[in-house]
Design a protein that fits this description.
Chain lengths: 100, 100
């Protein structure tokens, strides 16, 4: 079992109103120095069995036909090693909330 | 300038109706061997200047207060090297559509 992550983002040339809304709000919230914000979707797929080339090709086919609208979106597919929690060093939840 | 990616996913214990809807549709579309699907959000932030510890701490603070609802969501923050296109080997668009 391994986790395969499919990230789906709008193509660079496509207007991203959600990202723009976030970006416009940043100065009001006191966050400077962020020149652009893009928002997309992240899918985490738990794939049974070995994630070999054939399995990855199936996930790409799934992403292309179902998870992304390839007219306006690009997608990337990558394998995340352990099908466990994301890298604890980089993650954060309110309870922990430690600021590195 | 560097790209910092913030991934926001529902906490594991929180029901993910969107992910379940995708998972239930997979057999009908002919995709077997995927035991779970979770859907979340991906934010790409173009950060001006060096992405040092202070800049990353600011992005974590932004993620915690604005991009994620930390009552039900976890988030991870990571720096993507070049603020360019994602890894071409792993990405796919309809035009290219090459199946590895």
């Amino acid at each position: 079992m391994a986790r395969v992550v499919v990230d789906v983002m709008l193509k660079p040339e496509i207007l991203d109103p959600q990202g723009q809304a976030v970006q416009r709000a940043l100065p009001r919230l006191g966050f400077e120095g962020i020149s652009d914000v893009r928002q997309g979707k992240r899918f985490e797929l738990e794939v049974e069995g070995p994630v070999d080339r054939a399995a990855l090709a199936r996930v790409r086919e799934l992403a292309e036909t179902f998870l992304a609208n390839t007219v306006i979106e690009d997608f990337t597919v990558r394998v995340e090693e352990a099908a466990g929690a994301p890298d604890p060093a980089a993650s954060g939840t309110a309870a922990e909330g430690a600021v590195a």
